[in-house]
């Protein structure tokens, strides 16, 4: 398939597709545990090594913790050039590993309530709270999968990028620069204030408690059960913000160097996720309800080059069209389920039109469509004025 916007395809048989992937719908708990724990531990090791090298290479003469030496310092190479290379490698590795660990939040939101209980606790403890992205901020993701909400004002994860000028896409990609400090502000200052001031509580919940891309999205009022979870996770994030200075000083030798590295790590993660998000859909909807086939065609799979796509689209996120087809399909079976569908569905199936060759091609195509539509807008406005006169 080309990277152009797919055309309308014949009707799609969901029953036929489900039959083809029925053997892949059950999650393997052991895979989840081993994958996540190894990923998050490796990420922290790489982050710690990179932080040590940052202090010893760049900050020794400027930071308040000058002369501080990590316990791992004797294990690191003594050559300056080797340390610079190792610093770059461990910094990037930490970002990619943390990104993979963070993406398990997407799996958790699709696991049935009452299941994966201890895994949810472990993920929030080791990743969600330390990264200030507890699982409750992603609960609104389910609206993105409601057929009547997809692409409408009720879907906080959709913007019609195709119909907006390219500068909007560019500016949206700059949001990682401001999200980290705003997140700290939200949990460190607004959280305790919101507990004491009910009107602020409602505002914070509706406008500042969701991982979304649409700034106009308003989060619905939570149930009592959900509210209890939100309070507990908010409290954990607030306490973590209070504890960060002590943790950074004791473990990493200084607050400022730790915060600088944490900030740039967060920006890297958010930028990578932003690019992946832009490539996950065609963004052709204009706020109207779409039928199921059109929603499927608006989503994108990247089945090729798994060692590359698996880096920027980890934990099954490179199969986004497949995910919209079967949201509860566990990530570790996504590739096998995609192959089963491609082998069993007819040549005319719209599912075959969801595959793209590369993320770069899809992003460039989105940029071209946005530029073309933006160029047409002034012409259409001019034509309307001339016709009316």
Can you tell me about this structure?
This protein has 16 helices and no strands. The two termini are 45 Å apart. The longest helix is centred in the N-terminal third of the chain and has 31 residues, at 29-59. Helix 8 (179-196) packs antiparallel against helix 9 (198-207) and helix 8 (179-196) crosses helix 10. The chain has a domain at 14-26 and 292-378. The chain has helices at residues 14-20, 29-59, 80-102, 104-110, 117-128, 141-144, 166-172, 179-196, 198-207, 224-252, 255-278, 292-297, 306-312, 320-325, 334-344, 359-388. By secondary structure, it is mostly helical. It is globular.
Topology:
Layout: H1 14-20, H2 29-59, H3 80-102, H4 104-110, H5 117-128, H6 141-144, H7 166-172, H8 179-196, H9 198-207, H10 224-252, H11 255-278, H12 292-297, H13 306-312, H14 320-325, H15 334-344, H16 359-388
Helix pairs in contact: 2-3, 2-5, 3-11, 8-9, 8-10, 10-11
**N→C terminal distance:** 45 Å
**Rg, nearest Å:** 23 Å
- Given as residue ranges, the uncertain stretches (5+ residues, pLDDT < 50) are 1-9, 59-68, 380-389
Please outline the major beta sheet.
none
In helices, the fraction of residues equals 55-70%
Globally, the shape reads: globular
Count the E strands.
0
Q: List the helices and strands in order.
A: HHHHHHHHHHHHHHHH
Number of helices, counting only DSSP H or I runs of 4 residues or more: 16
Oligomer: single chain
Give a nutshell description of this structure.
The protein is mainly alpha-helical. Helices cover 60% and strands 0% of the residues.
Key features of this structure:
about 400 residues; disordered N terminus; mainly alpha; disordered C terminus
């Amino acid at each position: 398939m080309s990277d152009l916007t797919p055309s309308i395809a014949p009707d799609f048989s969901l029953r036929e597709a489900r039959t083809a992937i029925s053997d892949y719908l059950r999650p393997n708990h052991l895979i989840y545990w081993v994958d996540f724990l190894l990923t998050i531990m490796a990420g922290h090791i790489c982050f710690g090594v990179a932080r040590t090298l940052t202090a010893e290479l760049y900050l020794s003469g400027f930071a308040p913790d000058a002369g501080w030496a990590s316990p791992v310092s004797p294990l690191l190479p003594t050559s300056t050039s080797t340390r610079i290379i190792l610093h770059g490698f461990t910094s990037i590795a930490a970002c990619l590993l943390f990104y993979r660990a963070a993406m398990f939040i997407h799996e958790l939101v699709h696991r049935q309530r009452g299941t994966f209980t201890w895994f949810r606790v472990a993920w929030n403890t080791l990743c969600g709270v330390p990264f200030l992205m507890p699982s409750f901020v992603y609960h609104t993701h389910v609206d993105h999968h409601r057929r009547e909400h997809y692409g409408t004002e009720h879907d906080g994860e959709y913007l019609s990028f195709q119909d907006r000028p390219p500068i909007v896409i560019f500016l949206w990609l700059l949001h990682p620069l401001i999200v980290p400090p705003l997140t700290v502000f939200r949990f460190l200052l607004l959280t305790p204030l919101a507990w004491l001031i009910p009107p602020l509580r409602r505002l914070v919940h509706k406008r500042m408690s969701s991982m979304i891309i649409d700034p106009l999205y308003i989060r619905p009022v939570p149930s009592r059960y959900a509210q209890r979870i939100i309070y507990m996770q908010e409290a954990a994030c607030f306490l973590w913000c209070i504890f960060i200075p002590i943790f950074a000083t004791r473990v990493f030798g200084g607050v400022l160097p730790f915060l600088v590295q944490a900030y740039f790590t967060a920006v890297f993660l958010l930028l990578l996720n932003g690019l992946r998000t832009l490539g996950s859909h065609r963004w052709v909807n204009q706020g109207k309800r779409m039928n199921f086939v059109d929603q499927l065609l608006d989503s994108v799979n990247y089945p090729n080059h798994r060692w590359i796509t698996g880096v920027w689209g980890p934990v099954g996120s490179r199969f986004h069209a497949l995910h919209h087809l079967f949201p509860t399909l566990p990530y570790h079976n996504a590739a096998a389920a995609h192959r089963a569908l491609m082998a069993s569905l007819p040549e005319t199936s719209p599912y075959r039109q969801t595959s793209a060759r590369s993320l770069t091609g899809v992003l460039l195509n989105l940029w071209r469509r946005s530029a073309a539509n933006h160029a047409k807008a002034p012409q259409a406005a001019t034509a309307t004025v001339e016709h009316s006169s």
